[in-house]
From TrEMBL:
<dbReference type="GO" id="GO:0031415">
    <property type="term" value="C:NatA complex"/>
</dbReference>
<keyword id="KW-0012">Acyltransferase</keyword>
<dbReference type="InterPro" id="IPR051556">
    <property type="entry name" value="N-term/lysine_N-AcTrnsfr"/>
</dbReference>
<dbReference type="InterPro" id="IPR000182">
    <property type="entry name" value="GNAT_dom"/>
</dbReference>
<protein>
    <recommendedName>
        <fullName>N-acetyltransferase domain-containing protein</fullName>
    </recommendedName>
</protein>
<feature type="region of interest" description="Disordered">
    <location>
        <begin position="84"/>
        <end position="104"/>
    </location>
</feature>
<feature type="domain" description="N-acetyltransferase">
    <location>
        <begin position="28"/>
        <end position="221"/>
    </location>
</feature>
<feature type="region of interest" description="Disordered">
    <location>
        <begin position="1"/>
        <end position="26"/>
    </location>
</feature>
<keyword id="KW-0808">Transferase</keyword>
<dbReference type="GO" id="GO:0007064">
    <property type="term" value="P:mitotic sister chromatid cohesion"/>
</dbReference>
<feature type="region of interest" description="Disordered">
    <location>
        <begin position="246"/>
        <end position="270"/>
    </location>
</feature>
<dbReference type="Pfam" id="PF00583">
    <property type="entry name" value="Acetyltransf_1"/>
</dbReference>
<dbReference type="GO" id="GO:0016747">
    <property type="term" value="F:acyltransferase activity, transferring groups other than amino-acyl groups"/>
</dbReference>
<dbReference type="InterPro" id="IPR016181">
    <property type="entry name" value="Acyl_CoA_acyltransferase"/>
</dbReference>
């Protein structure tokens, strides 16, 4: 069965950046990770992050997008591409052997990899089948596993762009899979004040409790959790405004059906 590809999204969106965002370089593109860019992506993650990820983590990064793995990489092209600064589609039909770019000089300068984590659904006193035959959306959080940019490129807004891109991708694609993303969160090394400040500027809040011993190879070894709620701006930036309104309309129909079922039960009617 054919899975619809995700639409492309312009990179220069303020979805998670609450500060004015500078124009992105014409040399930049953001694409899915493929077999051709995987070795460079793996070297980048190994170089910049203190966690050693297993082979399966990297294998998942080039697989078809699933809730357990959503990954994008930032490419730097020697030749500016003013007409192509947008996110390539995460396409379920894209073979892993397809090159990420048609230009051999493109360099992997950053990457992001996330997973969707299901949240427990609140218990319902009325069976879903009595309320509506429509499928129910399951709440999830989006967990940022890795987010890394090579140091010479960190002042160009690329980290914000790639984070915006993965959020936009997730909100565009996964409502069709009956997944409702509620929050975004990540672990940050307690001593990395620069990273904590970066997340705070983009609407994240730092939780008070320290996760002791999270980074076993670092001293100090603790981690802070940064978290923010997925809001209306995210849905608008993802082009999901209409879909969101449609879901809210559907929820209203379901609530009305629920009230009708309760009323009939009280009246003894059928």
């Amino acid at each position: 069965m054919r899975t619809p590809s995700l639409p492309s999204h312009p990179l220069a969106k303020p979805g998670t950046n609450h500060n004015p965002q500078k124009p992105l370089p014409a040399e930049l593109s953001i694409t899915p990770i493929t077999a051709s860019t995987l070795p460079a992506y793996r070297r980048l993650i190994t170089l910049l992050l203190p966690i050693r990820y297993p082979d399966k983590f990297y294998e998942d990064s080039i697989a078809n997008p699933t809730p357990s793995s959503l990954a994008l990489c930032a490419l730097w092209h020697e030749t500016p591409r003013p007409g192509k600064r947008k996110l390539e589609s995460l396409n379920d039909e894209m073979p892993s052997s397809t090159p990420a770019t048609t230009e051999p000089e493109a360099k992997v300068i950053g990457g992001i990899q996330c997973r969707l984590e299901p949240l427990p659904c609140p218990p319902s006193t009325i069976p879903t089948c009595l309320i509506s035959p429509l499928p129910q959306q399951q709440p999830h959080n989006l967990y940022i596993q890795t987010l890394a940019i090579l140091s010479p490129y960190r002042s160009l807004g690329i980290a914000t762009a790639i984070l915006d891109a993965i959020i936009s991708t997730t909100l565009t694609y996964y409502p069709c899979q009956n997944i409702n993303v509620k929050e975004i969160y990540a672990h940050v090394w307690e001593a990395n004040e620069e990273a904590l400040e970066w997340y705070i500027k983009r609407g994240f809040e730092v939780e008070g409790e320290m996760v002791e011993g999270y980074y076993t190879k670092l001293r100090p070894s603790g981690a802070r959790i940064v978290r923010r709620v997925v809001g209306v701006v995210d849905w608008v930036d993802a082009g999901g405004g209409w879909e969101r309104k449609r879901e809210e309309s559907r929820d209203g129909v379901e609530r009305e059906a629920e009230r009708e079922v309760i009323g009939k039960a009280r009246d003894g009617g059928g």
